[in-house]
Structures are given as C-alpha cells and as structure tokens.
Amino acid sequence: MGILNIMIAESTPNLFVDDLETPPLPLTTLAWKRFKRHRMAMLGGVFLILLVLYSFGGSLFVEEKYANFTNPPIRLNTPSWQHPFGTDTVGRDVLARTIYGGQISMIIGILAVIIETSLGILIGALAGYYGGTIDSLLMRFTEAMLNIPEIFLLIVMAKFFGNKIPNLTLLGRTFSGSVVVIIVIIGLTSWMYLARIVRAEFLSIKENDFILAAKATGTSNTEIIIRHILPNSIAPIIVSATLGIANAILSEAYISFLGLGVQPPTATWGNMLDGANNYIESAPWLWFFPGLLILLTVLSINFLGDGLRDAIDPHSRAI
Amino acid sequence: MDPEPLVIVEKLKKYFPVKKGLVFQKQSGFVKAVDEVSFEICRGETLGLVGESGCGKTTVGRTMLGLYPITEGKVVIEKLDIAKADRNKLHRLRQKAQMIFQDPYASLNPRWTVSAIISEPIWVHHLAHSEKEKIERVQELMKLVGLSPRLINRFPHEFSGGQRQRIGIARALASQPEFIVCDEPISALDVSIQAQVVNLLEELQDQFQLTYLFIAHDLSMVRHICDRVAVMYLGTLVESADRDELYENPLHPYTKALLSAVPIPDPKKDRMRHRIILQGDVPSPISPPSGCRFHTRCPMEKPHCGELVPVFKEAAPRHWVACHEIT
Questions:
Q1: Which of A26, A274, B14, B216 has minimal Cβ neighbours within 10 Å of its Cβ?
Q2: What dihedral do alpha carbons B19, B56, B104, A230 form, nearest 10°?
Q3: How much is the ipTM here?
Q4: Cα separation of A8 and A2, whole Å?
C-alpha cells in the first residue's frame, strides 16, 4: 500500500497556474515577429546580406593586387566581358575595386560607429544619471560640438591628421594609414545625437522605483548604470547605431570624394568617386557602380533601422 | 518583546529645496515634507504610519533608509546612526533594512528575470559562495512567498500584480533583513489580493521576527496588521498609540476625522455613524500654517492654536498626541 501511495503521488503532476495557460512569448520572439511584418526592413536586411557577401565573398575570386594593379594602356575602357564594370583612369578594374572598396567602406562604417556609440553612451549616461553640474557641463559641450557643421569638422580634422599615420599591415594586407584617421574622425564628430538620446533615456529610467530599490539594496552607481539602466535603454541605442553605420559610410564618401579621405591605392566606394566628376558623361561607369553600391547600402541600412525601431520598442506590444 | 527599540527616529526633518529660474537657479524656499517626526519601533513590532496623500509618509520611510539625505534630526537603526554612518556602515545597514514598494509594476526591472531580481541583494552583499547556492537561495525564497520556483527564469511582465508584489517581497527578504519599510505595499493591488499579501507579510514576520514600518492609508488594513499606529498630517505626527487604544479612543481631532471616514460594512450602522467632514484643503507644505499645522481645518480651533506649536506629549500611557486642547 505504501508503495502504491508513493506511485500515485509521483504520477500526479504538480499543476501550477502557469501550466494551464499558454506560456507568454519571450521579448526576442515578439521583436522578431514585429520585424518580420516590416516588409521594407526585411528587404533591406536581405539586400544588406547580399552586399556583405558581394564585398567579403568577392575577395575569394579576385585578389587585392589585381584591384590595385594599374595598367594605363587600358584606361577608361567601357564595360566588357573582361572588365564588367569597365576600367578607371589608370586602367584598374572597377569591379575588383568595388569589391575591395566595399570592404573598407563597411569596416569604416562599423568601427566608426563603435567609437561613436561608446562615446555617446559614456557621455549621455554620465550626464543623465548624475545630473546637476556634470550634466550641464557635458551637455553644453555636446551642443557646442553640434553647432559646428559636421562636414566642416570632418574636412578640417582630415586635413590636420591626414598623412600622419603610417600604413599598417593586417592579416597580410596593407591598409593606408588614412583609414584609421577617417574612422577616428568620423567617430569623434558623430556621437552627439546618440549622447542626447542616451541622456534622455537615462533621465526617464532613473526615476523608476526599481532604481530606488537597487539603491536601497546597496547596489553601486556603476552597477545601476550598467546593469539596470543601460539594458532598458538598449533599443534606441541599437537603432541609432544601425543608422550611424549608413551615416559613417556616407561621411567617408564625402571626404574621400574631396580627396581628403582614404588615399589610393586602397580603394573605398568614396574615393572611387574622387575624380569621376570629370567623366560624368564620357565614362559614366566610373561613378555609376560605386555610387549605386553606396546608395543600396545606405538605403538598406536605413530601412533595416526603421524596422528595428518598431520591432524592439518595448512600448509597442502589438504582435 | 525586546524593550530596546530597534529603530529610533528623533526630530527627523526632511526639506526639499524649491528652485526658481532656468539658467541661474536660486532657492526660493523649501518643501517641508517631514518636520520634527519622532517615533520608536521595537523589535518584532509593526508600526503603522497613516495619513492622506502627500503628508510625507513615503518621505519618512525613504529618509530612514538613507535614500534621501537627512536635513536634520536623528535616525538610529540597530544602534547605527545613519546620518553619521560612513559608506561602509551604510552598506552593511542596507543588508539589515530593506524596503517593499507600492507599485509592483515600476519596482521590478522589466529586463531582468525573476532570478536576477531576487538575487540582487545576494550578490551585492556577497551572501552566496557559489552560483548554485545563489539559485537555491532564490528558489527557497520563491517558495517562501508562494511562487512556483519553476518560474525562476520568467520576466516580470509575465506575472500578475499580486505575483509581482510577491517577487518584491522575496527580493526584500533575500538579504535576511531585520527591518522592512513597507511603503503602501497593498494599495496598488486588487482587494482580493490585498488580504493574501498582508497575510504573507504577517506569516513572514512571525517566522523571521521581522520589524515593519507599514505605511498605508487604508485604516482597516492597518488595524489588522499593526501593533502601534502613528498618524501624520502635513509632515508632522499628530498622534501615536497602541492600535486598539487609537481606534477606540482617538484624541486628536484629525485622527477622529480620519477614523470617522472608515466605511462600515453594514448599511444600517453606516447610516448611524457620525462623519466628521473637514473643511478646506490640505495647505501647501511649502508654507505650512503657523502654530499647529492643523488649526486651519480643525473643528476645535482656539485662538492660540495658530500661534503656538503644540508639543508631542504623552497624554495617556503609551498614547502620544500633539494638540493644545488635550492635556
């Protein structure tokens, strides 16, 4: 009898209320569902993956030496089977250069955004959390930076720091030192909007009772900032960082177009446009292909960013 | 009951500065949220702090735990004067004195799992030696407050209000405190859930010999759970006494008015009761009335009430009141 009782006890499941209801969806699943409904964002995502495959997968078929190989006799050839995108003013293959240029442009975009985001979060978090004098000082500095036109800042800094950093070799490839300069100056001139967004988020989140609870528990300020507030303000940061990549690619294109950016022979989509303005009608392939790639990348990222904004907004509860 | 009080509050003052101007701010005055409040709580006792919205009940609770700097006065918890304590001592006190919040929706971090929320005091105060021990402790606490330990990895938005409040209680218990400030822990809950949460608080008190400061405005709930009751009006204490003494023999006119407003669940008796309806509104705490702060609305007002601040005195054994008319 005793054994039977135990068997019955074991075979009876302990039913809790949560077993009877369908389990609620985790936040990530909800976000993915919302994202999928955003057609343009999905399209942007697909295009972006294709563009990344084009730039990074392309190097399996074409060598960088070939992309940087000058062959003056075949300069300004129209697109043909041998050179599908034509050749540029010194006879380099435009297709190969868009592949390697894409890599540099995307790397610049991502690394510049890492600098931008780190600075923006640091300054915004300190200003928003501590408030008072720290807030006033940091925000006046941010506004001062915002008052200087970004392009002007970029050009001055590019002119000032350009050609001062030696070329570097990484993974068997040589990069122009100007790549590093461009990354840093784009990062240093674009953090202001993010800092303001982060500050605003911190200002509103720090008033919540759970922050007071953490203080009553004895959690330190650093841990409150990093573990409590930052995870709650991550949505706008991700969106802003995504859109920041597009802006960084565009900024690089501006300064490289003006000849102050990444120096040849290292190709970027931006510096491929440098000089192409002299051949707008006579050799349209010079500007068309890199221009189209920049356009597609920036558009895709912007659509993706829009979709992310809707998907990961914690206030939107629609499925 | 331990005769030595666990918590002593003496002439506690908390003024919030009011600032004017956008760029060049200057102080234009103070909100006198708490003015000369004194009380004691013995070990294992529950003190109810009642009063209408905005009278400074919450500020008293938060200031006592060192969440706001003290303007003046003394708060001693477990023989530690928190106004004079350095950071280390204050940190140790925070293990012994915890807080339960009013709004169970705002007091839990929406991005944290239940496990992370409840274990926060455990890792902050290094109370577990291993990850496994920490998880076991969290599960134990969840059982203690009546939550299934299997919900440990859920997020707060997956719980109902009552369950969330239980999570908040589990978090407050995690550091094995002796004193808990319950800041209106039931006023945001459904009536059907309120009783459950109050009973849970009482059971936990018996089990761990907890001392509560129970802030509330529901007088019948306060009568149920508290041993002593203190009544606040506009930042000051007007009366404090043992529970039954206060409810059966209120002395201060404000307490009488408050008690007369408690509904009686019997329509016949309810029609018979004599309600005292106070005139006017609560004055602004920025410029409170002179003398007795209640004199502008007091039915028993005499000319000297507006001039002299009444002393908080023991009118009967263990029954303190601040009124000129009672001797």
A1: A26
A2: 30
A3: 0.85
A4: 10
| Polymer length of chain A | 319
| pLDDT of amino acid A315 | 56
Tell me the per-residue pLDDT of A139-190, one tens digit each, with 9 for 90 and over: 999 999 888 887 888 888 877 876 666 777 666 666 677 788 888 888 988 8
What does DSSP assign to residue A233?
T
Contact assessment for residue B100 and residue B185, using Cβ atoms and an 8 Å cutoff: yes
pLDDT digits (tens, 9 = 90+) for B64-86: 888 888 888 888 888 888 888 88
Confidence (pTM)? 0.81
| Cross-chain residue pair B94–A228, CB shorter than 8 Å | no
Structure tokens at A55: 């730039």
d(CA B259, CA B249): 10
For residue A235, the chain B residue with the least C-alpha distance is: B111
Confidence of residue A225 (pLDDT cuts 50, 70, 90): very high
**Lookup: tokens for A42:** 């999905």
What is the second-level CATH architecture of the domain B5-279?
3-Layer(aba) Sandwich (3.40)
Among B159, B176, B42, smallest CA distance to B104 is for: B159
Mean pLDDT of chain A: 81
Sequence-separated (6 or more) residues with CB below 8 Å from residue A110 = A245
Higher pLDDT, residue A122 or B4: A122
Q: pLDDT (tens digit, 9 = 90+) per residue, A282-292?
A: 888 888 888 89
Residues of B in contact with A232 (CB under 8 A): 109-111
Q: How far is A191 from chain B (nearest CA, A)?
A: 25
Closest CA to A254 of A234, A268, A242, A236: A268
Residue A14's closest chain B neighbor by CA?
A: B148
Residues in chain B: 327
Of residues A19 and A224, more confidently modeled:
A224
pLDDT tier for residue A25 given thresholds of 50, 70 and 90: low
Identity of residue B269: K
- Spatial distance between the Cα atoms of A172 and A151, rounded to a whole number of angstroms: 33
Integer Cα distance of B214 and A258 in angstroms: 70
Going along chain A from its start, the domains and CATH numbers come out as 92-294 (1.10.3720.10)
Angle at A239 between CA A301 and CA A42, to 5 degrees: 45
- Give the pLDDT score at A21: 47
DSSP-assigned states of every residue in B46-86: EEEEE--TTSSHHHHHHHHTTSS--SEEEEEETTEETTT--
Helical (H) or strand (E) element with B19: strand B5-20
List of residues 6+ apart from A257 with CB closer than 8 A: A270, A271, A273, A274
- Residue B233 CA, chain-centre distance (Å), reads 14
CB contact under 8 A, A209 and B155: no
How many CA atoms does the CB half-sphere of A285 hold within 13 Å?
20
Instruction: Of A36-50, A69-83, B49-63, B137-151, give the lowest mean pLDDT range.
Output: A69-83
The two three-digit tokens of residue A189, written as one number? 């001139």
Q: How far is Cα A4 from Cα B268, in angstroms, rounded to an integer?
A: 58
Reply yes or no on whether the pLDDT at B28 is more than 50: yes
The first and second tokens of residue A222, run together, are: 């650093």
- Residue A316 contacts B where some CB pair is shorter than 8 Å: no
From chain B, pick out residues whose CB is under 8 angstroms from the CB of A215: 67
Q: What percent of chain B has pLDDT over 90?
A: 19
